[in-house]
Amino acid sequence: MRRTETKLKLAFCGRAQWSHLPPPHSGRQRNQHRLTVFSRRDTASEPAVVYATYGISPVQSSDLPKEGSPEGEETRWTPISDSSREESRYRETASEPAVVYATYGISPVQSNDLPKEGSPEGEETRWTPISDSFCAEKSRYRDTASETAVVYAKYSISPVQSNDLPKEGSPEGEETRWTPISDSFCAEKSNDLPKEGSPEGEETRWTPILDSFCEEPITVRLDSALVSLSKTHVVLIMAAVSLTSEEHEVTRIERIGAHSHIRGLGLTDELTPKPSAQGMVGQIKARRAAGVVHNMVKEGKLAGQAVLIAGQPGTGKTAIANGLAQSLGPDTPFTAVSASEIYSLGMSKTEVLTQAFRRSIGVRIKEETEIIEGEVVEVQIDRPATGTGAKVGKLTLKTTEMETIYDLGNKLIEALTKEKVQAGDVITIDKATGKITKLGRSFTRARDYDATGPQTRFVQCPEGELQKRKEVVHTVTLHEIDVINNRTQGFMALFSGDTGEIKGEVRQQINAKVAEWREEGKAELVPGVLFIDEVHMLDIECFSFINRALEDDMAPVVIVATNRGITRIRGTRNLSPHGIPIDMLDRMIIIKTTPYQEKEIKEILKIRCEEEDCEIQDDALVVLTKIGLETSLRYAIQLITLANLAAMKRKEKQIAIVDVKKVYQLFIDEQRSQKFLKEYEDEFMFDEGTETAMETN
Amino acid sequence: MAVSPERIQQQLEEVEAAAEDVISDRQEIVTLDRRRNTNREALRQLKTNKIASQSTGNKSWICVGNMFLKLPNTVVVDCIEKEQKQLDTEINNLRNGLRSKVNHLNDLEAKQKTVGTNLKPLSQDEWKAVKQVLGR
C-alpha cells in the first residue's frame, strides 16, 4: 500500500487510474478541497470509485480493490443496473446506488466491512439504492438525486470513532451497518457522522446513493486539506456528490457590508448552535434563543410578541437579527428599520410605524389556471383564396407522452402569427384567456448552425399531459396592497396633494377583505418579523403606539435591539433600562449578548478576511486578534481591508504583521482618539472640555 | 442514533408505497388526458365534417372497446361529450388528491411542505382585480 502519500484512485469498472490531488492551496484557506469525480451518464454499471489513501498505517489490502485485479473491483462495487431507460424515473434512479465510505483512524479498515471479493450477493444486499425518485417534478428529482451521497473526510489526529470503522469480527455488523439511507435524512445531522461505540449506527449512515446521470462533474468537498497526517484515511466514493458544507449561489455582485458574511444562524436541527457556521461565531446562548424564536415564527405562534436583543456594542445583535432574517427564508416578510427612520418629516411617526408593521405581514393567495403546454410539431394556417373569409389552421402539439392536433380559431391564429410561433418552439396557451407564451425552443430541434437571436433559450420538451393545471402561490404584504389601493388615479393625484399617508378607511377595507378571504379559505396570513434597531431612539409616543399595535390580531413579531444601558426615555425625563418604558419591557422576551472571547474574535476575523477577499498570515491574524481584544471588534474588522491595501502596496498578496502595525499607527481607534483629544483639547476649535463626553464603553 | 434495520425497512416501504401512489396517479392523468384529446379531435372532425357527411347518411363508425358500431352522428356526439365530461371530473379529482399525496410524501421524506397548497384558488375576476392592484 502506499504510505504517506496523498493519492486519488479513480476506478471505472476495473480500470484504475491514479491521479494526484492538487496540493492544498497555501493561500486562501477555505479549509475545503475539491475532489472532482466524474461520472459518466450511461454508467449504469460503472460506478466511479475513488480511493484516497493517506497515512502511515495502510488499509488492509483486502479492503481496497487490488490494483491489477479488475474483478476484485467489479465484485465489490456491484451496481444495480438500470436496464430500461424508458421506465419511469423511479426505476432509473432506483437502480444506481452510490456508496460512500469514509473511514479514518489508526486501526485499518477491517476486511469484513468492505464488500468482500467474490461475494456478490453480499454486496447486493448491502447496497440498497435509495433515490429521490418521488419528486413530483423532474428538476427536483435531479437536484436531490445528486445530493444524496454523503462524503466524510476527516483528516485529523483523533481517529474516527471506532464504531464507524467496521469492527473486527462482527460479520453481521457489516450487513447491518451499511444501511441505505435516503436523501431524506439530513446528512448534516450529527448522527450521520460515524459515532464511536454504536455499531448499528453505521448502517444507518452509509447511504448508497448514486446519481449516475449527472452530466456535470460531481464535486466533493472535503473538510480539510488532504495532507497526509499520521492516520490512515480511506475514502471510498462511488460516483458520489456531497453537499455537506454550506453552499450558496452568488449570482450577483453583493456589496460587502459589515454583516454580509452572515448566511444564517448556523444551528443544527435540534437548535444547538454550531461554534462557527453560516458566518456566525460564538454567542451560543443568544443564537440558541434566536433559533427558538425562528421556529416559533415559522409556526406562527409568536405573532404579536416582542423580543429584545440587548448587549454591549459589538456583540453581534444586528448580526443575529440578520442571521434570523436569512434563516427565515424569502417566504417570510422581514422588515428591518432603524428607529431613527421614524422621524422623517414626510410622514407622521405613527404612519411610519404602521407602514412598517403592515410591511411585515404577508398574505398568501393562490392563482390557478389551466394551460396547454407543449412543443409545436407543426403549425399550418390556411388563408382563404378569395381574400375574405376566416383563416383556418391546425396546430400540432406534443409532449414527451402524447401528441394531438388542435383546430385553430381566428383569435388563436392571430396570436400565433403575432408571436411568430414555428415548429420546435415550446409554447404555453392559457385556456381561459387564449394568451400564448413562448417558453423557448426545444433541444431536439437545435441544429449546429442555427442562426438564433440573442434571446433564444433552449428548453426541454415538456412532460406529462398536455393540459396542465398551473397553480401559482403569491405572497404579498399588506403594505403593498395598501399603497396601490390608495393611489388616486390619473391626474387627480396632482390636485389631491398626496402626502403618502394612507387613509384609515382604506386600511380597514383591506383588512375586511383579507379577513373575508381568510374565512373562505382563499388566503392565509404569513406573520413576519419587524426588526427595529437602535430602539432607544424611539420616544414615549412611539412606545405607546407599539404597545397597542402588538395587540392587533394581524401583528408581526417585533424584534428590537439596543446597546444602551440605563438611559433616559426620549420624550420624558425618566430613566429606564435600555431607554424603553418598563411596561413595554414587561411584554418582551429578552435575549442577552455577551462580548466575544479571544478565540471567537479570531474566528470572526478569519471569516471577515475571507469575505473581503484578503489573505492573512497566521501571526498577523494573532496580532489582529489581540488588537480586537484590546480595542474593539469593529476596529479590528475595519483594519483588515486597510491592511490588505498596505500589503498590496508592498506587492505582497498576504497581510503580514508589518502591514497590521502600519495601519494601526495610521488609523487610531476610539480609545486612543479619546486620549489624544484629552491631551490636545485646547488646540481644537470650540472645545468645551471633556467632562460631558459620552462614555461608550 | 441507533436505528434497527427493520425500522429502516418499514420506513422505506412506506416511502415506496407513497411514491408508487403518486406516480401511478400521474400516469393515470396522462392516460386520461390522452383519451380526452382523442375525443376532442373526434368531436372536431364530426362537427366540421357534418356538412360533408350528409352523403353518408349522418352515421359514423365509433370504436367501443374492441367493437365497431355505426351510429347516427347525434348519438355519437352525445356519447363523446358525456365521456369528455366524465374525464374532466376524473382528472380534476385525481389532481386534487395528488396534492395531499405529494404532501404526505414530502412528510415521509422529511422535505419541506410546499406552502399554500391548501388554499382555495381565487376566482377569475378576483384574481384579475388582485393583478390590477399589484400591477403584475
Automatic annotation (TrEMBL), chain A:
Q: Name the principal localization, coarsely classed.
A: nucleus
UniProt keyword annotation of Acetylation present: no
AAA+ ATPase domain location is 303-595
User: Which InterPro entries does its entry note?
Assistant: AAA+_ATPase (IPR003593), P-loop_NTPase (IPR027417), RuvB-like (IPR027238), RuvB-like_C (IPR041048), RuvBL1/2_DNA/RNA_bd_dom (IPR042487), TIP49_P-loop (IPR010339)
- One biological process GO term for this chain? regulation of canonical Wnt signaling pathway
Q: Give GO cellular component annotations, separated by semicolons.
A: histone acetyltransferase complex; nucleus
Q: Does the keyword Lipid biosynthesis apply?
A: no
Write out the catalysed reaction. Answer: ATP + H2O = ADP + phosphate + H(+)
EC identifiers of the protein: 3.6.4.12
- UniProt KW keywords: ATP-binding, Chromatin regulator, DNA damage, DNA repair, Helicase, Hydrolase, Nucleotide-binding, Nucleus, Transcription, Transcription regulation
Intracellular or extracellular location(s): Nucleus
Name the domain of life.
Answer: Eukaryota
Q: Which portions of the chain have biased composition (kind: Basic and acidic residues)? A: 64-76, 83-94, 114-126, 165-177, 189-204
Family listed: Belongs to the RuvB family.
Function as written in the Swiss-Prot or TrEMBL entry: Proposed core component of the chromatin remodeling Ino80 complex which is involved in transcriptional regulation, DNA replication and probably DNA repair.
Q: What is the protein name given in its UniProt record?
A: RuvB-like helicase
Taxonomic lineage is: Eukaryota, Metazoa, Ecdysozoa, Arthropoda, Crustacea
UniProtKB/TrEMBL annotation, chain B:
What is its subcellular localisation? Answer: Cytoplasm
Recorded source organism is Penaeus vannamei (Whiteleg shrimp)
| GO cellular component annotations of the record | cytoplasm
Which chain positions lie within coiled-coil regions?
77-111
Q: Tell me the protein's name.
A: p53 and DNA damage-regulated protein 1
Q: Does the keyword Coiled coil apply?
A: yes
Concerning InterPro entries, the annotation shows: PDRG1, Prefoldin
Tagged with keyword Cytoplasm = yes
Keywords recorded for this protein, A-Z: Chaperone, Coiled coil, Cytoplasm
